[in-house]
Amino acid sequence: MLELSRRNLMTGGAAAAAAVTTAPLILAAANAQAAGGAVSPLTGVYAYKMGDAEIIQVFDGARTFPIPDNFIVNLSKEETAKAYAAQYMPAGQLTITFSPLIVKVGGKTIAIDTGNGLGANAATKGAVGNARHSMAAAGIDPKSVDIVLISHFHSDHINGLKNADGSPAYPNAQIMVPSVEQAFWTDESNASKANGPNKGNFAGVKKTMDGLKTTPFDAGKEVAPGITAVATPGHTPGHTSFVIASGNKSVMVQGDVTNHPGVFMPNPGWHLMFDNDAQTAEATRRKVYDMASADKMPIIGYHFPFPSAGFVEKSGTGYRLVQVHALS
Questions:
Q1: Which candidate among 22, 31, 211, 225 keeps its CA 20 to 30 Å from the CA of 182?
Q2: What is the pTM of this model?
Q3: How many Cβ atoms are within 10 Å of 246's Cβ, its own excluded?
C-alpha cells in the first residue's frame, strides 16, 4: 500500500535537518542568467536558494512530434488532440520538455536525473540533450558532481549518464538508483510485466548501465544531504521522487508523477502510454498532489514547462499548477 503523507515523507535523516513549511521559495537569478529576467533562453539555467541549498534547474531541451495513437490510453486520439491544442500546441502535435536538476547542499554537488545525453543532442541537432551545455553555462563541471540520483530508468532520465562515446559522463560521482527500479529493468524476464511502450526499454537500460558502478537505495531513506527518497510508483515499478529539505523549507522533485501539467493535472485519471501501471500511477498522482496542495509544498516536475517549479492547487475534480516567478 502506498503511504504518502507529510510525516512519512520526512522520515529518515532529512527530518532532523528540516520540516515541511508553507513558506514560499525565494528565487534569485543565477550568474548565467540574462540581466532583467530569471530565465535566459541562451543558457537554460534557473537557480535559486532554498535555506542553505542552491537548486539549479538545467534545461535539457524539448521535443515536438505528432500525437501517437493511444498517447492517452483512456482517451480518443481526437480528444487527446483537443487537450494539447488547448495548451496552444500545433494542431495534431505535442511538445515534451526535459529538465534535470543540480543541487548544491552540505558541501556536495548532486545531480537528479541526467537528461537525454550528448548522443541524443547530436542525433536531434540540439533539440534535446542540452543538460551538459546548460551545466557549463552555470559553471558546473560534470567532474565536480559528487552524487547522481536517478528517479527511474527511462532513457530521457538515464542516457545522460554516458558521453556520446560511451564513457562515463560523471566520472567522480556515486550513481545512486532505486533498488526496485534496478531489479525490474535489469531482469529481461520482466518484459512480460511491461506494457507495450515499456517492453523496448530493457535493451536501452542494458546499453546505458553496462560498465557503470551503481549504488541501489530504498525509498524512505536519506540518500544525500537533506534529500529523502520517496516511493512514487506506477510510471515505472520503482519510480522515485525526492524531497529536498534545508532549514525550514522543502520542495518535492516529482520526476514523472505526471507529464505536461496543463493536460494531466486537471485530469489525473488520464493515463499516459508510458505509465507502466496506469492505475498505480493515477493513485500516486492523486496522493502526491493532495499532499502538495494541502501542505503548500512546492514541486519540481521533470516535464513541466521550464522553469519547472510551482505550487499545486485543487481545481474541480483535479489540480492545477501555479508556476513560480523570479523574485530578485
A1: 225
A2: 0.89
A3: 23
